[in-house]
């Protein structure tokens, strides 16, 4: 079916695109809140507040979709809203089937917003409509008290009267005129809008006005009117306030939309406390931020170019044998140039930090998505799992959040399926029957560290040894020589799985290698720590941003290479006596730790053969992907901030390289993929 056209002909094409964007954002947020409420109700169906919240969210989705002409969404939301109205009134009670159907409706809403974002046609939801209708017939019926009617029973037209609805918008709300139009449409579905202040035709002329007064003739109960006027961006709603509209700088106490009728919903005196500060926000497309970040990156490159030129010119202005007025003038101008470059450096660094800050978002919403996934997978497997979230306010690049979804899904699914035992096994081992899965995020230096931890049975190295040989991934002789730590690293091999049978959740061996590949594509690394019988932790280390990276520069064969500094554990000078051969492997002794040592020139395959051997100026100890290796380099160039560009767009992918950047003198610098480098170094050292 064609994409539905909005019924509001008063908006231009650009304005409607903005409205659809607002609808998508609001609906996604409301779906998240719906999931939270449903999961809470599944544990305690008697929570009236959560039922009211769920009702408001569905009502908001219905009203917004109706205004924009998205009839399939409106139809499904209407049926779901009707059922939650029955739940609110006590006509029916919530059961497991209701939660399942409601979650299916949420999945449908999310599918619709995804299609709208891509200008794709919407699917009809007839099957969901019938499923929701079936809930009323199948659910237990609870008779309301004889001395009172249900609070949601609509009044007849004889009870209609004019009500004043005062809506106060949050400061800095984007598109307040569009939001006002949306709320008027919602209120008009409950009765007749007599007038509004300001009138609809003057909304655009009052972009700074925060109070909208609507006179509504309706017989609907107060809770329904308050719910219709409640939406994202609305700070508070008052019904029939006794006080005149207050200045925009004052903030009345919020009114609960599920508040019962009566004097309690009448106007309340203004708060005497100081108004809380409200952060002003504006919606900006991520693509626009990408362009801005690219421009900031170009400034970083040019600033480095100026700094390099100043450095190159420094010898020219050293004190000569004879001082002349002309020379002193040139030296003074050179000093001014140095000062200007220093000022430019400070400005560019502040601009860089500011632009990066605009792209940073809390990781909490990403973690919150997994409450639903964990609930579904645990129910399917007959396990009880609770999610524990730590560090949800940790900020990360928006693009990074988008890319982390799939790797985290794989880790969560495998933790519940493979790591966490059944309730019977846990009870027999003296462990809590309800398992804990923890998602944790934190900042460490220039890194974001994300950990996925379960308190399950851990990874059995001997089981991995048997499965790896059975699947033909390694020979029996090679498997017998591996230590437990090395055996656990085999879980990253393509095609490896410890599952005894293929299920809907896992067992095909196509998960963990994808996880490491995706993390490496983000210039990050992932490590695993496991204790048999106690649990497993997967730790991801990622840069703060995908665009600009702090790197250690080395030179090899007249070509500069860069390694992200977060993967450089240390830089050491190794004496000849510290390098030994163990089982035909070249290793170096660093304070009692024997690490595989390989020259950087021997890691890659070079078109004209490897570069000539050059004495090692230093050894970089690299840690990534759960491996540690010592890399000999002939020359160190120091650290630089590099704007990283991918190679895949214009060149064939080269294993071990993660992108390229431009140095201050215009020279191209190749970025090394640290996780792949350590793997290649270990294999090269072992003669593989």
Structure commentary:
By secondary structure, the protein is of the alpha+beta class. The protein has 5 domains: 13-138, Four Helix Bundle (Hemerythrin (Met), subunit A); 159-242, Alpha-Beta Plaits (2-Layer Sandwich); 287-358; 362-459 and 498-543, 2-Layer Sandwich (Heat Shock Protein 90); 548-685, SH3 Domains (SH3 type barrels). 41% of the residues lie in helices and 21% in strands. It is built from 19 helices and 22 strands. Strand 16 (585-590) and strand 17 form a beta hairpin. Helix 4 (96-117) runs antiparallel to helix 5 (126-138), helix 8 (286-313) runs antiparallel to helix 9 (325-358) and helix 12 (398-419) runs antiparallel to helix 17 (512-521). 34% of the residues are buried.
CATH superfamily of the largest domain: Histidine kinase-like ATPase, C-terminal domain
Going across the biggest sheet, name each strand in turn: 14-18-19-17-16-15
Question: Could you name the CATH class of the largest domain?
Answer: Alpha Beta
Amount of helix:
40-55%
State the end-to-end distance.
Answer: 57 Å
Taken from the alpha-carbon principal axes, the silhouette is: flat
- Major pleated sheet: 6 strands, mixed
Instruction: Give the count of helical stretches.
Output: 19
Strand content: 15-25%
Radius of gyration: 32 Å
List segments where confidence is low: pLDDT < 50 over at least 5 consecutive residues: 1-10, 141-158, 247-270, 272-279
Provide the number of structural domains: 5
- What is the CATH-assigned architecture of the largest domain? 2-Layer Sandwich
CATH topology of the largest domain: Heat Shock Protein 90
Overall pLDDT metric: 77
Number of strands: 22
């Amino acid at each position: 079916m064609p994409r539905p056209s909005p019924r509001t002909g008063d908006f231009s094409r650009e304005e409607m695109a903005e409205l659809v964007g607002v609808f998508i954002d609001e609906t996604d947020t409301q779906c998240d809140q719906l999931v939270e409420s449903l999961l809470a109700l599944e544990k305690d169906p008697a929570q009236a507040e959560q039922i009211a919240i769920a009702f408001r969210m569905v009502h908001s989705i219905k009203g917004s979709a109706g205004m924009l002409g998205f009839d399939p969404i409106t139809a499904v939301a209407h049926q779901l809203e009707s059922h939650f109205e029955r739940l609110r009134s006590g006509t029916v009670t919530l059961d497991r089937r209701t939660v399942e159907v409601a979650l299916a409706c949420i999945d449908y809403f999310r599918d619709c917003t995804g299609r709208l974002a891509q200008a794709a046609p919407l699917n009809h939801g007839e099957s969901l409509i019938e499923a929701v209708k079936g809930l009323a017939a199948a659910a237990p019926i609870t008779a309301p008290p004889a001395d009172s009617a249900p609070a949601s029973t609509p009044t007849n037209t004889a009870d209609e009267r004019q009500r004043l609805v005062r809506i106060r918008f949050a400061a800095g709300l984007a598109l307040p005129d569009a939001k006002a139009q949306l709320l008027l449409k919602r209120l008009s579905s409950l009765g007749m809008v007599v007038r509004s202040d300001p009138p609809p035709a003057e909304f655009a002329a009052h972009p700074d006005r925060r109070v909208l007064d609507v006179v509504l003739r309706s017989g609907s109960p107060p809770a329904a009117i308050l719910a219709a006027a409640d939406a994202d961006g609305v700070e508070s709603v008052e019904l029939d306030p006794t006080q005149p509209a207050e200045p925009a700088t004052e903030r009345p106490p919020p009114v609960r939309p599920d508040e019962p009728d009566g004097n309690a919903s009448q106007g309340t005196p203004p708060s005497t406390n100081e108004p809380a500060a409200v952060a002003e926000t504006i919606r900006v497309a991520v693509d626009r931020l990408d362009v801005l970040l690219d421009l900031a990156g170009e400034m970083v490159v040019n600033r480095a170019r100026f700094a390099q030129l100043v450095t190159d010119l420094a010898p020219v202005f050293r004190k000569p044998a004879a001082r002349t007025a002309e020379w002193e003038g040139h030296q003074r101008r050179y000093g001014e140039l140095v000062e200007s470059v220093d000022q430019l450096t400070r400005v560019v660094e502040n601009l860089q930090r500011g632009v990066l800050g605009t792209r940073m978002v809390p990781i909490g919403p990403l973690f919150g998505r997994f409450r639903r996934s964990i609930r579904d997978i645990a129910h399917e497997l007959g396990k009880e799992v609770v999610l524990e979230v730590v560090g949800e306010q940790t900020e990360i690049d928006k693009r990074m959040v988008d890319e982390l979804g799939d790797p985290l899904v794989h880790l969560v699914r495998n933790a519940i399926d493979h790591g966490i035992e059944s309730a019977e096994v846990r009870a027999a081992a003296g462990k809590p029957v309800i398992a804990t899965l923890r998602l944790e995020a934190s900042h460490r230096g220039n890194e974001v560290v994300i950990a996925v931890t379960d308190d399950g049975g851990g990874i059995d190295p001997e089981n991995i040894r048997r499965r790896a040989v059975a699947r033909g991934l390694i020979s029996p002789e090679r498997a017998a020589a591996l230590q437990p730590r090395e055996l656990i690293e085999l879980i990253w091999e393509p095609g490896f799985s410890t599952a005894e049978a293929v299920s809907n959740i896992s067992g095909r061996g196509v998960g963990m290698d994808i996880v490491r590949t995706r993390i490496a594509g983000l210039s990050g690394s992932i490590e695993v720590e496991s204790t048999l019988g106690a649990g497993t932790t997967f730790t991801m280390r990622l840069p703060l941003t995908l665009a600009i990276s702090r790197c250690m520069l080395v030179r090899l064969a007249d070509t500069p290479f860069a390694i992200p500094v977060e993967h450089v554990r240390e830089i050491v000078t190794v004496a000849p006596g510290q390098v030994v051969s163990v089982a035909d492997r070249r290793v170096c002794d660093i304070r009692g730790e024997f690490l595989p040592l390989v020259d950087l020139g021997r890691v890659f395959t070079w078109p004209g053969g490897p570069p000539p051997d050059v004495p090692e100026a230093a050894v970089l100890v690299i840690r990534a992907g759960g491996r540690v290796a010592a890399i000999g380099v002939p020359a160190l160039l120091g650290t630089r901030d590099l704007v990283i560009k991918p190679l895949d767009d214009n060149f064939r992918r080269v294993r071990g390289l993660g992108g390229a950047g431009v140095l201050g003198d215009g020279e191209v610098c190749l970025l090394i993929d640290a996780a792949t480098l350590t793997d290649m170094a270990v294999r090269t050292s072992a003669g593989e």
